[in-house]
Amino acid sequence: MDVSLTAVVYLLIIARHLVNSTHPECSIVLHLQKKENECKLKMKTIDEASLQSNSNKTAGCVMEWDGVSCWPAASEGEIVSVRCPLPLLKPETPPVVITRNCTGRGWSKPSLPYYKACYFEDYEQEEDVGKEKNYFDTLKLIYSVGYGVSLAALLIAVLVFCCFRKLLCTRSYIHLNLFVTFMLRSLAVFIKDAVLFADKSTDHCTVSTLQCKAAVMFFHFCVLSNFSWLLVEGLYLQTLLLFTFTHTSKIFWIYATIGWGCPSVTIVVWAMLKKQLDDEGCWDNLESSLWWIIKIPILLSIFINLLIFLNISRVIVRKTKAAHVNQSETHLYRRLVRSTLLLIPLFGSHYVVFALFPEHVGVGPRLCLELVLGSFQGFIVAVLYCFLNEEVQKEIQRTMRRSQT
Predict the structure, then answer these.
(1) Which of 39, 138, 244, 400 is deepest in the core (most CB within 10 A)?
(2) C-alpha triplet 171, 177, 180: angle, nearest 5°
(3) Residue 190 and residue 186: Cα distance in Å, rounded?
(4) Nearest 5°: CA angle at 147, between 146 and 148?
(5) For the segment 183-220, what is each residue's pLDDT rounded down to a tens digit?
(6) Whole-model pTM?
């Protein structure tokens, strides 16, 4: 395949990977793969026929696949022409003919390079391709840094809670599980990039290996678990406000079932159906109807958390304004909900914007919100739930005073 055409297809693969969807331009790769198989089948048939007839090889040029077109066998001095493959042509562009001469030394070079005859019209488009590549490379660098910072901050936060045992309670255990899901989500992104994106020569439109399918499954499980534990945070806070005397430790296992059990069952069901009904590529096709098995739980988590946020805001306003509520109870309500109220809008509002839109709508803003902002969510969680937590700060100060005395 021509170098410039390869660069174009590679950029399309980058875009497909970043938005985690099957890009329409993958039809170019699939079309070329189909034509290559047809050409090789013809070449094999001709070779078998010549062996059976014991015919001597005559002067001329044999049938050849050049990466884009299948050139038929020709006699020396003959000029052969082919048309540009239709998937490579722009809309409303007339078919372009490319010719090659059969010489005594074999096939000559094409009369026009494929990227000039079939795809590019001028050098401005080449500049646009370069700008898109730089944009995607920059985007990948930013979200890689974001997930790395989040992973480091969350690891420190987990160590802080584990070292100071007095901080551990039902609320802290829920926070720890949320930290773990953000850490797993960061690791899943790095694993997915390493498996699907490290080798730039790999054809991501047609590759289908157990390794890449496992990476995509793990990524989807981590994302589902992350949204499930964000939902648990909201449900726990709602329980504290509505049922003041409830022993929340007794229902922690219900929270654990929601946070880990539901994503596990969802992923197993999705994987079994993908294996039976849509076992193509690396299972990262978001245009498949089976994608709704994963998308529906995520949407439910987003909108339930949004409703919880609105209801908690209403309860806080009502209880803090009540005449019989004393100052200590008011402070308790504010302290319990402060960190979560800061996080629920952050985790819910920007996902709600694109939740009901198709995956190909608003790709640019979606990439910025879900990749760039999303990569720093774990860092924000660690800061608000651990580093700025009054109980954590007091426990650290108490330990430091003890060590000094």
Answers:
(1) 39
(2) 145
(3) 7
(4) 90
(5) 999 999 999 888 877 665 555 566 778 888 899 999 99
(6) 0.71
